[in-house]
């Protein structure tokens, strides 16, 4: 097979694979990403064990919430991406959690002071005012967030050189939390190595993690995909870096 034919097969396979939910099992053996040292799922489980009413914002397919061993009396999740809503409902129905479909950037559809714990893994955007509003006094917000410039190497492989990122800096999140009336408890950062062993893994990732290359389609980016495929064949797995930060705050 020629290099071009190999690329076409890999891309076609990845373009046809489902990307619903927020699991990354399809990438097993094809891509890797280091995990942050703080263990977000364990921290969520610890906080959930002592909560009475909890909310998971931007739950994805409900994967993290489904693994919580000791659940609060009331457990609710929100999701804005329609393909994920039904996945999350199927996943979380068995543990008695409800899933509320919300509009992107819309207000949280809950009463003031409804929850003593709000968590969120990789939210699209954190509405700090809304988060503070639905927390009870003394309640906790815990979130693992995507940091500025995450996967920049992959974005630039598709788009060319990019300006320095202006958003998603941990310090910005901390300032916004405090401006909304929350007290910062913890702020940690991590840079994580990610590798892609073939161009199919790249295509699948870009289809799933849509903010890496906004508006990505195979047809629109066929030329840079072909270039990156040749680079992987010649040099080995493509390496990028993900940036994550953990933020925890309480309502005063």
TrEMBL record:
**A GO BP entry:** methylation
Q: Please give the InterPro entries that the UniProt record associates with this protein.
A: 23S_rRNA_MeTrnsfrase_RlmA, Methyltransf_11, SAM-dependent_MTases_sf
- Residue intervals of the Methyltransferase type domain: 55-142
Gene Ontology molecular functions = methyltransferase activity
The catalytic activity of this protein is classed by the Enzyme Commission as 2.1.1.-
Name the keywords, alphabetized: Methyltransferase, Transferase
Q: What class of enzyme is it?
A: transferase
| Stored Pfam families | Methyltransf_11
PANTHER family referenced in this protein's UniProt entry, alphabetically = METHYLTRANSFERASE, METHYLTRANSFERASE TYPE 11 DOMAIN-CONTAINING PROTEIN
| Protein name in UniProt | Class I SAM-dependent methyltransferase
Originating organism: Micromonospora parva
């Amino acid at each position: 097979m020629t290099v071009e034919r190999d690329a076409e097969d890999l891309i076609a396979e990845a373009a046809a694979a489902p990307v619903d939910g927020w699991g990354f099992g399809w990438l097993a053996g094809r891509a890797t990403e280091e995990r942050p040292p703080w263990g977000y799922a364990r921290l969520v489980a610890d906080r959930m064990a002592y909560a009475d009413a909890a909310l998971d914002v931007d739950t994805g397919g409900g994967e993290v919430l489904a693994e919580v061993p000791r659940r609060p009396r009331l457990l609710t999740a929100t999701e804005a991406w329609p393909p994920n809503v039904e996945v999350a409902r199927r996943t979380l129905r068995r543990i008695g959690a409800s899933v509320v479909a919300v509009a992107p950037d819309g207000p949280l559809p809950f009463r003031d002071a409804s929850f003593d714990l709000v968590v969120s893994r990789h939210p699209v955007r954190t509405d700090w005012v809304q988060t503070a509003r639905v927390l009870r006094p003394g309640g906790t917000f815990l979130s693992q967030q995507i940091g500025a410039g995450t996967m920049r190497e992959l974005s630039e492989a598709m788009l060319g050189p990019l300006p320095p990122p202006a958003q998603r800096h941990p310090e910005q999140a901390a300032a916004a939390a405090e401006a909304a009336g929350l007290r910062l408890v913890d702020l940690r950062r991590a840079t994580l190595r990610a590798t892609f062993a073939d161009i199919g893994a790249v295509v699948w990732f870009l289809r799933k993690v849509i903010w890496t290359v906004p508006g990505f389609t195979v047809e629109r980016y066929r030329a840079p995909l072909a270039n990156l495929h040749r680079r992987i064949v010649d040099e080995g797995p493509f390496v990028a870096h993900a940036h994550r930060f953990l933020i925890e705050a309480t309502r005063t």
